[in-house]
Amino acid sequence: MPRGGFRENAGRKSEWASGRTFVETKPIRVPREHSDLLLLIAHRLDAGEILDLDTESLQDENQQLKEQVSRLEDELDQATKTKPVQLSLLSDQLSLSKSDLEKLRDKSLVLLEVGQQSAIYGKAKKAFNHFIKILLEN
Fold first, then answer.
1. Read out DSSP for 97-135?
2. Nearest to 114 by CA among 125, 128, 103
3. Alpha-carbon distances of 131 from 52, 65, 82, 90, rounded to whole Å
4. Higher confidence at residue 1 or residue 30?
5. Which residue, 104, 86, 78, 97, is CA-closest to 136?
6. Residue 135 half-sphere exposure toward CB, CA atoms < 13 A
7. High-pLDDT (> 90) share of the chain, %
8. What is the mean pLDDT of residues 53-80?
9. How many CB atoms lie within 10 A of CB 16?
């Protein structure tokens, strides 16, 4: 009875969607803070996803979204300072529960088309939560 040596289908299976083996991969050195993100990108590319690597257009789009969120926050601040009576009337007309308002918030946040970890998403969620709080207080 032979021992050792190559055995077909032995060992851990590949984590890559394409089934690439250890021999078909290449180790690289990257800063630790970027390693998880780069590995995620590599797995998405391996699965056949096409990623837009034009960072300038993404930066422009992020800047536009940041400006839009900032404008919305300013409008919300103005509305809460100058129109509390209208907000009260609005909450009476809506007559939504807190959970209904949170569902509406979550559906609206999906429309931003940014990741939940992005600063834009966080600021927009904070603005929505502020708006919900004001509606429920009135």
1. -HHHHHHHHHHHHHTT-S-TTSHHHHHHHHHHHHHHHHH
2. 125
3. 34, 19, 14, 12
4. 30
5. 97
6. 21
7. 4
8. 79
9. 14
